[in-house]
Structure formats: C-alpha cells, structure tokens
Amino acid sequence: MLVKKSDLEQFGSSECSREVYFPSLVFLGFELGYSMENPNSLVIWEAQFGDFANGANVIFDHFLSSGEAKWLCQTGLVLLLTHGYDGQGPEHPSARLELFLQIADDNPYVIPEMDPALRKQIQECNLQIVNSQLLLTSSMFCGDRLIHREFRKPLIVMSPKNLLRSKACRSNLSEFDDVQGHPGFEKQGTRFKRLIKDQNDHSDLEEGIRRLVPCSGKVYYELDEHRTKVEAKDVAICRVEQLCPFPYDLVQRELKWYPNAEVVWCQEESMNMGGYTYLLPGLFLPMNYIVIYVCLYLDVALS
C-alpha cells in the first residue's frame, strides 16, 4: 500500500516528504485482529502469489501459530496462499508449505484418537493446513466446516493458480447438493474430504494394484494424465487434501485397500521442501511394513 504526502498531512505530518510502504504483515495483523473480534465471520487474507506472504512471517510465528497457547485467544483466520510451481522462478509461486508444517505442534509419531464425533485431533492442533486443488466443492466445504465449529483454528489453504484454467479441475453443480445418486457423490459429496481416494472404480480390496501414489496439490492432475498416457492400470493415486492434522484413519483405509502395493509419495517440490518430511511418519505409522520413498518425476512414480 502506498501513502503519499497529502494523505499524511491530516495526521500532522506535513513536513514528511517520503512515500511510505506498509508491508504485508500490517494487513495480515489487521485481519487477524478482525477475526478475533468477529469469530462468526469468515475472514480471508489472500496473497496473490505465495512469496507475498514472506514479509508476514512475524505474524505467522508469534501470533497465528502460538496465540492460543500464550494468550488463550482463538482465531479462525483463513490464509489463502498460491502454491504450485508454474515456471515463474524457484520461489515466486511457492508459499513455503514446509514452513507452515514446521510450526504445527502435533506429534507426527503419535496417532491421536480419531473419533469424528469428538473432533479431538483438530482441537489439540494449533493449525489446519490444506493443500487443495481449487475444486469449488472442496474450497467451499473447507470454509463451511471451519465456521460451523464451536471453536476456531487458523486455516492455511495452499492452492495452485494455473488450475483456474484447467478443464480437469472442476466441480459439477450437482456436487453441491446432498442427494445420493448424482454424478460424483461418492467421490466428493457435500463435505470437505481430508483425503480423496483414487477416482477409478476400485473395490474395497484391490490385490492387483502394485503401487499406491499418495500426493498433494496440483501434481495430481499431471500424474493422472501421465497414468492415462502410459496405461498404468495397476497404479492407484490418492490425494491428501488436509496435511495437518494428518488423516491417519483415511490413510490406513487406503493402505488396507491395496495390500500388495508399495507406497510412493510424489510431490513437485524438492525433497527438503513440501510435505515429505512432515508426512513420512504419518504414512509409516498406520502400517509399519510398507515401503515408501519420495519421487519428484512422473515417469518414475508410475513406472
């Protein structure tokens, strides 16, 4: 934001001749305070590109991640950050997903009580971190879920910008109702899904699947396109939409569906970035005999 001399004169700064720039942390601080004073409002702070959030790390570290623990102040602020490598430089489109996962306070080596009625897992976490592919239903139900709870937690939403023009990333109008039988009900339904299973018609037990590829973000559409191209029918791809708190129960369901499959986590970020180091314990804990490694290339992930 740019403030000129004429605007400062009303505050008694007539001698000021410099132009003043307010960093992004000022606006984020305002939205943070507004969300605390209006807990029933859905307050969203959007960064057009992921790296715009870099100047607001003070708010992330000292207020957003630890405000409830220090001052018992809950906030339902939503950060909508663009994340996805679109060929505009190594950091411009990256919202630094790994930094937000590092300030999450859940224990990756302990599976919490997963009873959905108790919602104990989300109540004990300091953040919610979602890496969504901009499906309209997914985005809408994620915010709807936050605002209908009796408590508030900050929500970090990572979403790629280039999928706005993708024909594959869309939602049918019928997916916004709650009527069984409409196209896509079993795949999405009228709720936010922490994990989206493989979109092929698989049974509850698929012994012929040799590889399960969990992923998160827009890389799913590249994987699915490549799988169709090479006709890899023995590969299943699932999408981890909610990274924190980790959906242990749904991952365990996926692993049981594919008992003979090796697990390959695929991401577009480098190995020391993205969700790999955070998610690795969560993928190991539900079943301790699986083989897992990270893959950054589509042909290797599906071969």
Describe this structure in words.
By secondary structure, this protein is an alpha/beta fold. The protein has eleven helices and twelve strands. The strands form three sheets. Strands 3-4-6-5-10 form a five-stranded mixed β-sheet. Strand 5, helix 7 and strand 6 (155-159) form a beta-alpha-beta unit. The longest helix has 14 residues, at 24-37. It is globular and about 55 Å long. It starts with a strand and ends with a helix. The model is unreliable at 1-8 (pLDDT under 50).
Secondary structure elements and their pairing?
Blueprint: E1 2-3, H1 5-8, E2 20-21, H2 24-37, E3 44-47, H3 57-64, H4 67-71, E4 78-82, H5 97-102, H6 120-123, E5 128-131, H7 136-147, E6 155-159, E7 195-196, E8 211-215, H8 219-230, E9 235-240, E10 242-244, H9 248-257, E11 262-266, H10 276-284, E12 292-295, H11 298-302
Parallel strand pairs: 3-4, 4-6, 5-6, 8-9, 8-11, 11-12
Antiparallel strand pairs: 1-2, 5-10, 7-9
